[in-house]
Write a structure and sequence with these properties.
single chain, 327 residues, alpha/beta, Arc Repressor Mutant, subunit A, D-Maltodextrin-Binding Protein, domain 2, 2 domains, 9-stranded mixed sheet, two-stranded antiparallel sheet, 12 helices, 11 strands, 48% helix, globular
């Protein structure tokens, strides 16, 4: 063998060894890591994410740290009392949501193909809707499909729409109208927004109140980002009323508690305070001559495969929610 051919052989062997080492060092992102990463970002906490996924906080931290070392980039940083993604983490987050969405969809398609009635159904709705509107439907669905895991994510309609479009939800209960071409919407029904006041309030004897009368009242509102607040704000502005907002709260239950304490009046869905009205702890007053109503719908992704379980859930909602909305 000549020196030249020997040198070429040595170089080829060295390159092959380097390639094998490179392949061994190549980081692999598996579904468990991606789901852990997305859950940490969504909950802004290693501890809360660990509880949801059944892992310890230290295990979550070690898992993320190990992959940060492999990737050579920082994915998460501390931000106040929580964590947030770095710019590199934001890039990974976009791909992770898409990948997990496709994996979940594949699982649901396969489960339907097998006809086992198992899998996962991800439902989104506002906090008050989760508390008052969905429990009966969830119970009926669980009775029909006991092997299906239900995951419920609460948030305002805006956030639920965003999660649907990104593939993080299968179905969302939304206030209408919505303008999102990527969603198909099934109309469910209408509910009524009413004024509530403490029994000691001067309006306790009223059968009805006009919009303009709210101008002089201390008004408590459910968070301004919510669809409920947008309906109320539009109603007031159209009547030329600039309300005196004394308090904003992020839960309708907290709003009603403050109203019961005599801190002012509020405008809320009738179904959210039906028990209080029946118990006499709150007074419900319709608005205007014909009342103030809004429409509700179920949103699903227009192009997504709709397995048997999703179609069954939509049917149950269309059957059971209208009478709950119109109490």
């Amino acid at each position: 063998m000549t020196k030249q051919s020997s040198a070429v052989g040595d170089a080829s062997a060295s390159a092959a060894r380097g390639l094998r080492r490179s392949e061994r060092r190549k980081p692999e992102l598996d579904a468990k890591l991606l789901r852990a990463f997305v859950t940490i970002v969504d909950l802004r906490s290693f501890t809360r994410a660990g509880r949801r996924l059944g892992l310890s906080q230290s295990a979550m931290s070690q898992q993320i740290a190990a992959h940060e070392r492999l990737l050579g980039v920082k994915l998460l940083v501390r931000a106040g009392q929580g964590v947030r993604p770095t710019p590199a983490g934001d890039v990974l987050l976009q791909y992770a949501r898409q990948i997990l969405g496709k994996l979940d969809e594949a699982q649901r398609v396969l489960m339907e193909h097998e006809g086992t009635g198992t899998g996962v159904l991800r439902v989104g709705a506002g906090g008050a809707a989760c508390e008052h509107l969905l429990p009966g439907t969830m119970k009926a669905f669980h009775d029909a499909f006991p092997q299906v895991e239900l995951r419920v994510l609460s948030g305002p309609s805006r956030l639920t729409i965003e999660r649907l479009v990104q593939g993080d939800l299968d179905v969302g209960l939304l206030t209408l109208p919505i303008a999102e071409p990527k969603l198909r919407v099934h109309e469910v029904g209408r509910d009524e927004l009413i004024i509530i006041a403490a029994p000691s309030h001067p309006w306790a004897v009223r059968r009805r109140a006009e919009v303009h009368e709210l101008a002089g009242q201390p008004l408590l509102v459910y968070e301004r980002r919510s669809a409920t607040f947008r309906v109320i704000e539009r109603m007031l502005l159209e009547a030329g009323v600039f309300p005196r907002i004394v308090m904003e709260l992020d839960r309708i239950g907290a709003v009603t508690s403050m109203v019961r304490a005599g801190l002012g009046v509020a405008v809320v869905p009738r179904w959210s305070v039906l028990a209080d009205i029946q118990a006499g702890t709150l007074i419900g007053i319709p608005i205007g001559a014909h009342g103030l109503f809004r429409a509700w719908g179920l949103g699903v992704r227009a192009e997504a495969h709709q397995p048997q379980t999703l179609r069954a859930f939509v049917r149950l909602c269309l059957e059971q929610l209208p009478p709950v909305l119109t109490v």
